[in-house]
């Protein structure tokens, strides 16, 4: 007996018809997309964050003929510290780069490094030391644009800026809780990058103001997404990191996950990457606020969560954020940038 009974035949015809219909729809969809790509493309690009023109250039690692520097070795170098993450991002320690060479390579790039700072309430007292020490050690010889956010522009000290270094002061409203000031930075940074920096800077660093430079912080720190190791936890097992451990928070990191504990007192990278970071953290902070939960270390907890799933392309050793009160450890051969000792109860608006 034939399987093609009239009922099955009709069913089969329907199936063929349906298949042809779907195929036709997909095909016309594809033709539509391909013919409209030119008019559609730029519109989409207009909507998303635009890369600064500088970033679209290909930064070759060019060196000049006749430029002399020490011969690099493939056998001799730092062996007391790890200078590469397991995802092959360099970890920057003294002795892992040649400052003279790396400066000369980057001189060709005409870079501008935006640097953001917040000094609200009594934290304006940290500005003088921060700015004076930065002008001695921070990207000397390169273009730096500081953006300082404060509620008291009159308290900003006169500090002589080095060549190609500029300071812009922005007024922001004061706040009653230090946690809100600290967390609120993410949204202000996000907005700054969106509205103003797109074509004005190549890289950005966001730094705490209760800090001081003691040594070089230069182009060796530049990268797409840059995290700095917190000075207290670089030799801790991951389960002792002070990550947010409550599942209810967007900053939650499960036990057994995470690479390092990063500080929120310094982070940076390309504008596009740091914009994405600040936008993500701002959104996560808002969700937490709506759920009446505040992560254990505020935006630092959210930053750590972000870095677990968006690995930094460069990691700075604790040389790039020490604590004036930390005891010395052998591996940290130079302190470049450090949190100054402060009496929290005295400087903060709340406890
Ligand atoms: N901040 C401020 N005024 C305040 C509290 C905080 O300007 O009253 C800013 C300042 O830039 C500071 C940052 O928020 O460096 C982070 O706060 P804090 O340094 O107190 O946090 P910690 O590093 O002690 O965790
Ligand atoms: C403290 C620091 C805080 C936070 C915390 C994380 O030393 O003052 O800002 O980073 O460590 O555990
Ligand atoms: Mn601080």
Secondary-structure map with pairings?
Blueprint: H1 6-47, H2 53-56, E1 91-92, H3 99-107, E2 112-119, H4 127-137, E3 143-150, E4 165-171, H5 178-197, E5 203-207, E6 211-213, E7 225-229, E8 262-270, H6 271-290, H7 298-309, E9 314-316, E10 322-323, E11 337-339, H8 344-347
Parallel strand pairs: 1-9, 2-3, 2-5, 3-4, 7-9, 10-11
Antiparallel strand pairs: 5-8, 6-11, 7-8
The chain binds uridine-5'-diphosphate, beta-D-galactopyranose and manganese (II) ion (MN).
What general outline do the C-alpha atoms trace? globular
Poorly predicted regions are 1-10, 31-48
Give the strand order, joined by hyphens, for the main sheet. 1-9-7-8-5-2-3-4
- End-to-end Cα distance, whole Å, is 89 Å
Beta strand % = 15-25%
């Amino acid at each position: 007996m034939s399987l093609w009974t009239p009922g099955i035949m009709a069913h089969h015809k329907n199936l063929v018809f349906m298949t042809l219909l779907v195929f036709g729809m997909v095909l016309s969809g594809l033709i539509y997309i391909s013919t409209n790509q030119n008019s559609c493309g730029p519109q989409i690009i207009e909507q998303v964050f635009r890369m600064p023109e500088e970033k679209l250039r290909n930064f070759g690692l060019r060196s000049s003929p006749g430029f002399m520097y020490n011969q690099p070795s493939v056998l001799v170098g730092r062996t007391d510290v790890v200078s590469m993450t397991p995802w092959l991002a360099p970890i920057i320690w003294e002795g892992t780069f040649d400052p003279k060479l790396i400066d000369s390579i980057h001189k060709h790039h005409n870079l501008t490094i935006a640097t953001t700072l917040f000094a609200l309430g009594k934290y304006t007292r940290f500005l003088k030391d921060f700015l004076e020490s930065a002008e001695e050690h921070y990207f000397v010889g390169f273009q730096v644009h500081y953006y300082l956010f404060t509620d008291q522009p009159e308290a900003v000290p006169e500090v002589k800026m080095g060549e190609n270094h500029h300071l812009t002061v922005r007024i922001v409203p004061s706040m009653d809780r230090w946690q809100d000031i600290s967390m609120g930075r993410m949204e202000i940074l996000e907005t700054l990058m969106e509205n103003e920096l797109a074509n004005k800077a190549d890289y950005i660093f966001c730094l705490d103001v209760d800090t001081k430079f003691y040594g070089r912080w230069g182009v060796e720190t530049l990268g797409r997404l840059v995290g700095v190791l917190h000075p207290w936890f670089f030799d801790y097992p991951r389960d002792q990191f002070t990550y947010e451990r409550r599942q209810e928070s967007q900053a939650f990191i499960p036990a057994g996950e995470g690479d390092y504990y990063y500080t929120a007192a310094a982070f940076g990278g390309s504008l596009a990457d740091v914009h994405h970071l600040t936008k993500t953290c701002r959104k996560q902070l808002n969700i937490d606020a709506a759920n009446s939960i505040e992560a254990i270390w505020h935006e630092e907890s959210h930053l750590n969560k972000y870095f677990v799933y968006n690995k930094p392309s460069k990691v700075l050793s604790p040389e790039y954020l020490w604590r004036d009160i930390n005891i010395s450890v052998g591996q940290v051969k130079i302190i470049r940038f450090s949190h100054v000792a402060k009496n929290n109860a005295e400087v903060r608006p709340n406890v």
